[in-house]
């Protein structure tokens, strides 16, 4: 197996003394996992930050083997992690994707939406500019994974984008969160939904 693709880092965890196992979302190949030798070193740590866009080369002798990965930084989103709300949003959406999307199954619509959402989180003037897009992204994931339209962001999503009621945004945030917890993260709620609860707390402070 040999794959070269642009991708978005979704998770990176230590493996052994120096390596990292990285999960990254690509357009053509879906979620890819690979072992990055030296990933815990000083040069690679800033590259393997969730949310970063990279160019990845993955190679494996057999399809069942964990590929070895070489990763080059394309876009760094590390500067935005110093801000509480963008950091919480990036942490949530990347860990969410890493947890619920199956490996090597392409979801181009999710990949495109994730790219756009990360750009909005990093560059919108405030969370009011990207929170409705985050809800639409979560609804898209539910739909793409087979849960239909009933958890969609709703036809009034554009009203929120145009500066609608922030309380309605938070209420929809809570309703979609219940669906995610029940259907996609039922067996991992404590590990992954905790990141969403941090984000919810920070968004709620905007309504005060």
TrEMBL record:
GO terms for cellular component: bacterial nucleoid. The keyword Thylakoid does not apply. It comes from the Bacteria. Residues 1-66 form the DNA replication/recombination mediator RecO N-terminal domain. The keyword DNA damage applies. Keywords: DNA damage, DNA recombination, DNA repair. One of its GO terms (biological process) is DNA recombination. InterPro entries: DNA_rep/recomb_RecO_N, RecO, RecO_C. Pfam families: RecO_C (PF02565), RecO_N (PF11967). PANTHER family: DNA REPAIR PROTEIN RECO. This is DNA recombination protein RecO.
């Amino acid at each position: 197996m040999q794959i070269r693709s642009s991708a978005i880092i979704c998770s990176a965890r230590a493996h052994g003394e120096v390596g990292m196992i990285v999960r990254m979302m690509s357009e053509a190949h879906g979620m890819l996992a690979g072992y990055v030798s030296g990933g815990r070193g000083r040069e690679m740590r800033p590259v393997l930050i969730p949310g970063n866009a990279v160019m990845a080369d993955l190679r494996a002798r057999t399809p069942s083997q964990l590929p070895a990965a070489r990763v080059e930084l394309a876009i760094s989103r590390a500067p935005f992690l110093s801000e509480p709300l963008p950091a919480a949003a990036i942490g949530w959406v990347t860990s969410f994707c890493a947890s619920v999307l199956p490996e090597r199954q392409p979801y181009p619509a999710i990949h495109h939406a994730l790219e756009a959402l990360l750009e909005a989180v990093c560059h919108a003037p405030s969370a009011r500019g990207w929170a409705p897009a985050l809800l639409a992204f979560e609804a898209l994931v539910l739909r793409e994974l087979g849960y239909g339209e009933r958890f969609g962001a709703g036809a009034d999503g554009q009203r929120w984008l145009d500066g609608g009621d922030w309380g309605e945004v938070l209420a929809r945030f809570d309703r979609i969160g219940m669906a995610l917890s029940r259907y996609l993260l039922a067996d991992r709620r404590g590990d992954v939904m905790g990141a969403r609860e941090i984000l919810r707390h920070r968004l709620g402070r905007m309504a005060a």
